[in-house]
Structures are given as C-alpha cells and as structure tokens.
Amino acid sequence: MLSNQPIPALFPSPSGAGVITKTEMEVLKRIYLPDKNIAADMYISSHTVSSHRQNLSEKTGYKTKIELAVYATKKGYIEWVN
C-alpha cells in the first residue's frame, strides 16, 4: 500500500505550498491516463484522483493534465516508449 507521507517538494510552488505526497506522486506518474484508470490502478476513487490532481495543480502551478504531464516528463517521472 502506498504511504501518504510528505516528501520534499519536487516542483516549484508559486503558492509556497511545497510538499508533494507519495500518493500525489503516484497520481502524477499516471497523469496521462483517464482518472478512472488511475483510480483502478491505485485502488482509490475517481473523486480522490481529482482531489490529488487539484492538490498537484495548487502545489506546482500547472493547471491542466497536459501541463502536469509535460512537466512530469521533463523531470523524468514519466518515460514515454516509442
């Protein structure tokens, strides 16, 4: 089971919110998937996925799933295979 303990901030936070939890990071790594698929993979509800995504947006300043996916890719959290 994934821990929800805070880890050091991985992204700049314009709001100064600064900590991304391990669960939020797991959502971020799957951000390119539909919420229902993320929820099924992580054994959580789609509503919980939406809450984590909103938290990520507030903490990083990136508002859309596309922006979050691009940033996560640039940081190496998502690897695309050709």
Q: What's the CATH first level? A: Mainly Alpha
Fraction of residues in β-strands: under 5%
Low-pLDDT segments, ≥5 res: none
Number of domains: 1
Write down the overall geometry.
globular
Whole-number average pLDDT?
82
Treating each run of at least 4 consecutive H or I residues as one helix, how many helices? 4
Q: Strand order of the main beta sheet, please?
A: 1-2
CATH superfamily: Winged helix-like DNA-binding domain superfamily/Winged helix DNA-binding domain
CATH architecture annotation name? Orthogonal Bundle
Which key phrases capture this entry?
about 80 residues, mainly alpha, Arc Repressor Mutant, subunit A, two-stranded antiparallel sheet
